[in-house]
Amino acid sequence: MYGEKREKNIWAIGGGKGGIGKSFVVANLGIALCERGKEVILVDADLGGANLHTLLGITYPTITLDDFIRKEVRNIEDVLVETEVPHLKLISGSLDILTMSNPKYTQKQRVIRHIYSLDADYIIIDLGAGSSYHVLDFFLVSERGIFLITPEPTSLENAYRFLKGVFFRKLRNLTSQYEVKKIIELAMDRGNPEGIKTPFDLLERVEGIDREMGALLKEEIRRFRPQLIVNQVRNRAEAEIGFFVKSACRKYFGIELSYLGYIFYDHNVYLSIQKGRPLLLNHPTSDAARCIRDITSKLINGGELSWSLR
Amino acid sequence: MVSSMKTWRDQNYYEILEVDPQATDEEIRIAYEKLKTTYSPSSPGIYALFTPQEMKEILAKVEEAYRVLSNPRNRNEYDLMLRGEKTEVTIPAPAPAISLHRHLGPAELREALGGEEGPFSGENLRKIREYLSLEADEVARETKIGRNNLSSIEEEDINSLPALVYLKGFLKAYAKVLGLDPYKVIEDYLARITRKGYQRE
Ligand SMILES: Nc1ncnc2c1ncn2[C@@H]1O[C@H](COP(=O)(O)OP(=O)(O)OP(=O)(O)O)[C@@H](O)[C@H]1O
Ligand SMILES: [Mg+2]
User: Fold this and answer.
1) pLDDT (tens digit per residue) in A184-213
2) pTM, to two decimals
């Protein structure tokens, strides 16, 4: 089961704030990738708020991540369920809030390990809101996690905090050296007594402690290239926010986001959710559906939007 | 694209503006407008990353970079310096904005607007400009807004107004020249044209 022949893309989708459209985007990106002939597995890792199955028209999943976590089944493949879209499979999230909203570290690692072993062209992981360690660790399963925001100030504020959480968590996971770990944890609080104000200050400090470690962290930051989508966009100016976020991340963290594109705010999204049918099936030619297909092309080809005047 | 693990404090002008060293004048201007909006105090959520002081410093760097790179002679000099063929460059002083000493008090404002103190509609902006006996051409040149954009603004012609980011920049520049509070002008003006159906699409 650990045969890793096919080139796989694994992306988790996160954004800090709740209710911004993460699950909606996961479900419909999955369908759009299938339309392009890809084999796709969607994983609902929103521990405590799983509802991806509903967005795909499945009211009562017969088997979920729960069964895997409780070790009732041995392989994660055994909890895959088919959807109405050919080549689109789903791993439903846990519906048992009590056991699953707070899994043990080893359980989480087992889930992540098994996700890597899944056989598909694309594996997309839906995450819950917030910036808890579970969310951050799932977001970090790959270099190219998908970072979703909406143009609202509150969403942006959470988004920047989320990225900060992701960034520091990533660096922290890269080192087992106690002194470096401690410095990273300190740096997360801007008012730290060490006077480390920015990620750049932090890297300088780490280099001072251990040159090699500093170089390693820099290299990892360079490779870390999350992909950005702005959802619920109402006009051009709001779509342009994606470029602002890209610049802020460059200047603050030194990381390069790829701005994949935006999705219009579209009443059809609401209608399709009410109906319990994915937008791409229910309103295949709607504005939002078109946006999702554009983004899918960028995802497949590794492209991004470029800033232009009008 | 530029990707350097350097803090913005150490970045060269191209890196600061996030453009290629081969960027065209147009690309540089677009980048400049984008960055001014990104690091303006009203940029949503950005305070989660930068302090107001840092944003001010970034903006000042952006301005400086733009002043040098938007002027062919200065840019050429700067490029030579980057290649090590020159040791010094001239940084043009900030444009001596005609607004520098102007502040329009309420009394003057009432006089200009025939008894009112606002709102800052396109028509009222024009009235204030005429009250200050500033020619449209002169203002267009000083503010770099451009003659057409200035007319569109004064006429509130929603079909020919530029995209919101630029419009805000233009209104701010125009407000400063007139000695008005830029934020008040932007607020009034945007409220009006939004009602008229401005969509900047
Ligand atoms: N592009 C859009 N246009 C219109 N409405 C949208 C759009 N995207 C999302 N929505 C609305 O937002 C709601 C929340 O979406 P969704 O459940 O996907 O968010 P989420 O980020 O997964 O939330 P949670 O954090 O709770 O998991 C949807 O029910 C839908 O009504
Ligand atoms: Mg969700």
Assistant:
1) 988 888 788 888 888 988 999 999 999 999
2) 0.79
Q: Are B129 and B48 members of one domain?
A: no
Torsion of CA B154, B155, B156, B159, to 10 degrees: -130
- Atom 15 (ligand 1): residue with closest C-alpha? A21
Is the Cβ pair B38, A252 closer than 8 Å?
no
The pLDDT-based confidence of B119 (bands split at 50, 70, 90) is very high
Q: Write down all domains in chain A, each with its CATH number in brackets.
A: 9-301 (3.40.50.300)
Q: Look at residue A177 and tell me whether its pLDDT is greater than 70.
A: yes
Residue B115 and residue B76 in one domain: no
B38 and B113 inside one domain: no
Q: How many structural domains compose chain B?
A: 2
The residue of chain B nearest to residue A241, with distances taken between CA atoms, is B38
Q: Which atom of ligand 1 is nearest to the CA of A291?
A: 1
A21 min Cα distance to partner chain B (Å): 19
Are residues B78 and B110 located together in one domain of the fold? no
Query: Strands, DSSP E only, in chain A?
Result: 9-14, 40-44, 80-82, 88-91, 122-126, 146-149, 227-233, 258-264
B171 residue type, one letter: L
Identify residue B95 by its one-letter amino acid code: A
Shared domain check, B128 and B75: no
For residue A162 and ligand 1, the question of a CB distance below 6 A is answered with: no
Question: For A15-48, what is each residue's pLDDT tens digit?
Answer: 988 999 999 999 999 999 999 999 999 999 998 8
Query: Which among A160, A198, A200 has the least Cβ separation from residue B45?
Result: A160
- Helices within B113-199 (DSSP H only): 122-131, 136-143, 147-155, 164-178, 182-196
DSSP-assigned letters across all residues of A37-103 = T--EEEEE--TT---HHHHTT-SS-SS-HHHHHTTSSSSGGGGEEE-SSTTEEEEPPP--HHHHSS-
In short, whether A155's Cβ falls inside 6 Å of ligand 1 is no
